[in-house]
């Protein structure tokens, strides 16, 4: 759940960076910090489930290379 909360904060920061409307009462966000938080939680999830993220990334990239996007 914390990972998803951080994704939401990252999305809000991205919206602010793009000049899109956001809640005027929301705190100031730093996109780079929010992206780092998402990455930290992703690594924590990978560690918990013993997922080799680099290997999974490379395998998935090879699968994606074979896909045809329409």
General description of the model:
There is one protein chain. By secondary structure, the chain is mainly alpha-helical. The chain has one domain (2-66). The protein has three helices and no strands. The chain starts with a helix and ends with a helix. The model has no long low-confidence stretch (mean pLDDT 90).
Can you count the helices? 3
Question: What is the helix fraction of residues, given as a range?
Answer: 55-70%
Task: Report on the biggest sheet.
Answer: none
- Global structural class: mainly alpha
How would you classify the quaternary structure?
Answer: single chain
Distance between the amino and carboxyl termini: 33 Å
Low-confidence stretches: none
Q: Characterize the overall form.
A: flat
Radius of gyration: 16 Å
Number of strands: 0
Portion of residues in beta strands equals under 5%
Summarize the structure.
This protein is mostly helical and 70 residues long.
Please tag this protein with its features.
70 residues, mainly alpha, flat
Topology:
Layout lengths: L1 H16 L13 H18 L4 H14 L4
Helix pairs in contact: 1-2
